[in-house]
Write a structure and sequence with these properties.
about 650 residues, alpha+beta, 8-stranded mixed beta sheet, 6-stranded mixed beta sheet, about 25% helix
Length: about 650
């Protein structure tokens, strides 16, 4: 089987047009189903009202039914008396009007004159407080058009109209074929097997099946197919002979020598597209085998999701005569420039925070394999193919993943990473469901810069001043002139050299990082941990150039620990809690102060008050202590107010 090569990337819109135009004819049958089972289904034919609603003239209020003309002339100075049972009839809301009546007078406007008569002091007008026959709908009227997705409101309308067996599209069946010799089912994904790197858990099919259901389809997940062209071809042919309406093969559509999907489609049917100018998702393949559409999508989770949303869900919606709902749109100011490769449309996942009048977007990791960049994202910014990226501070359109109310309740923290931030967010959400803490990790200096630019509410910082050994005050005074802030202690924490279990190289301190055979993983420039390292190296007279891996940077303590766990580095500087979390050993370096720098203009904000309440709670402090390597004696203390 030849190696796949992208001869020409197709634009996303062109690819969608080719795909949908070739497959516009819906293969879906129609079926009548009980109304109780119609939620989430799509109408295949117009829903025609069998009944009028209401089916009679009915009272809209409790009171008496009357003929309006019998009440004309009634006033406070000239009231009228009506005989009950002759010209006035007691009636309850919803009941049909007695023959000959055409209005209702509310009970509070009636004066009783014994049991036989009532007195009124104001005339009624025809059809006052009456729901007329057919006011809501009239029998034979088209109630809902085909292509309508049936939800709670539609169920009520159908029930009121007597449509008890609506005609809907049969659910489109989607065969999902995972491919890859390195994959194992989730049920067999034992930690010891995965940690060796020999196998990977297959979970894309779980995501894809959920996306199929969201589009009204029925997923059929088939067994994992190894990276053998004959096996993949046989799996596609078998699926094409089944009752599947769409075939999706996952992890077999890139340009690699072991990705055979595009060639198999070409040799067994029609290959319309291989390579789309969208990132992630570029290697998508579109075609047809034995009359069945085949969608080949990349194996990286984010690529797979974007490719299926663009081509799989759009096709399923087309077959059901509807469109997938578009995400709400907003405008957000990027926290930093978003460079992008010209010629490729890129989807950048971002966290969002409402800071003053601006919705601020902070990019998440952009790799196609970082599925958490979607689960943690609040929105997606699309960078067009004809630009080299988006500048900072210029509003950009963002498609929202979270509700606007949820985003509005979030505190945006930009700065140094610490494991307690995610814990803090969990505690806030539990105690104050309206609020949350959204954190983005760009280092302590990056956090202070964001505060200076009014791009966040607070920043996590642990910047050491080598002159006096104190944390954060000097950096705040230097970099936040004109920006009043409050300095609050979050935790005291143990910085340490994270090493493999048993410390096989016998690393005893910072000086040992320069030893031959020791490889290091560093934190990014501007982070407090990097500042601490450089301070210690200077104090010891050790040149950074002598450390193998000094330029190898990570953005979080957990990523540093993961690098050591994987064997990519012999040691890394980070917090003890990260070492504990991954079962690694550590060599203490010293205790440092990790503080929250909160913009004073938000000090009385309800979100900040909730954050401080949680930080100062015994439950939060106990949970932090349980992580190991943290001190909480001063947690929640207001240390300093900087007037700017």
């Amino acid at each position: 089987m030849e190696r796949n090569v992208y001869l020409k990337l197709t634009t996303l819109q062109e690819a969608r047009d080719i795909w949908l135009s070739n497959l516009a004819a819906s293969p879906l049958a129609f079926e009548e189903i009980p109304l109780e089972q119609a939620h989430g289904r799509t109408l295949a034919e117009p829903a025609v009202a069998r009944l009028s609603s209401p089916a009679f003239h009915g009272a809209a209020m409790d009171g008496i039914a009357v003929k309006a003309s019998d009440t004309f002339g009634a006033s406070e100075s000239g009231p009228k008396t009506l005989a009950v049972g002759e010209k006035a009839f007691w009636i309850n809301t919803g009941h049909p009007l007695p023959d000959g009546t055409d209005a209702v007078i509310m009970v509070e406007n009636i004066i009783r004159e014994g049991e036989a008569e009532v007195r009124i002091e104001k005339a009624a007008f025809p059809w006052q407080h009456v729901r007329k026959l057919g006011e809501d709908m009239v029998a034979t009227e088209i109630l809902l058009p085909p292509g309508t997705l049936v939800g709670p409101y539609e169920l009520g309308a159908l029930a009121a109209a007597g449509v008890l067996r609506p005609t809907v599209f049969a659910r489109p069946r989607v065969a999902i074929i995972p491919s890859g010799s390195e994959l194992v089912p989730l049920s067999e994904a034992a930690p010891e097997l995965l940690s060796s790197g020999a196998k990977l858990p297959e979970f894309n099919s779980l995501i894809l099946a959920s996306l199929v259901r969201n589009a009204g389809g029925e997923p059929l997940v088939l067994p994992i197919v190894p990276d053998h062209p004959q096996s993949i071809a046989e799996a596609i042919k078998k699926a094409a002979k089944s009752d599947a309406d769409l075939i999706v093969i996952n992890a077999g559509s890139s340009a690699g020598s072991h990705d055979y999907t595009a060639s198999i489609i070409r040799h067994n049917g029609d290959l319309w597209v291989h390579g789309v100018n969208v990132m992630p998702g570029k290697p998508t393949a579109l075609g047809r085998v034995r009359g069945k559409p085949v969608l080949g999508i990349p194996g990286y989770p984010v690529s797979a999701i974007i490719a299926f949303e663009e081509f799989g869900q759009s096709l399923l919606a087309l077959w059901q005569g509807r469109r997938m709902p578009e995400a709400p749109q907003a405008e957000a100011v990027p926290f930093q420039p978003l460079p992008s490769r010209p010629g490729m449309e890129e989807r950048v996942r971002v966290k969002l925070g409402q800071v003053g009048e601006n919705l601020v977007a902070v990019p998440l990791p952009r790799g196609a394999g970082t599925v958490t960049s979607l689960s943690r994202a609040d929105g997606i910014i699309r960078i067009p193919a004809d630009v080299e990226g988006l500048p900072a501070d210029v509003p950009a359109k963002v498609s929202l993943i979270r509700a606007k109310e949820q985003i509005a309740g979030a505190l945006l923290a930009i700065g140094s990473h610490d494991n307690t931030l995610d814990l803090l967010d969990s505690f806030i959400r539990k105690a104050y469901p309206r609020f949350s803490l959204t954190s983005a990790h760009v280092g302590s200096m990056g956090g202070l810069t964001a505060l200076k630019q009014r791009r966040c509410h607070l920043a996590g910082s642990h910047l050491l001043n080598p002159t006096d050994g104190r944390y954060n005050r000097a950096a705040i005074a230097t970099h936040l002139r004109g920006v009043p802030v409050c300095l609050v202690r979050l935790v005291d924490r143990e910085q340490c050299l994270i090493v493999p279990p048993g410390n096989p190289l016998g690393i005893a301190g910072i000086a040992d990082l320069a030893r031959p055979g020791v490889t290091f993983v560093n934190r990014q420039r501007g982070s407090g941990t990097r500042v601490l390292l450089d301070y210690e190296l200077s104090r010891l007279g050790v040149s950074p150039d002598s450390i193998a891996g000094y330029e190898n940077e990570e953005y979080t303590h957990m990523n540093v620990a993961a690098a050591v766990l994987s064997g990519r580095a012999s040691a890394g500087l980070g917090v003890q809690a990260a070492a504990n979390a991954l079962g690694l050993d550590f060599v203490p370096v010293g205790t440092e102060e990790y503080d929250l720098v909160i913009a004073e203009e938000y000090w009385n904000d309800l979100r900040v008050e909730a954050l401080l309440d949680v930080i100062r709670s015994a439950a939060f402090k106990n949970a932090v202590s349980a992580l190991g390597g943290y001190g909480v004696d001063r947690t929640g203390e207001l240390l300093w107010t900087f007037e700017g």
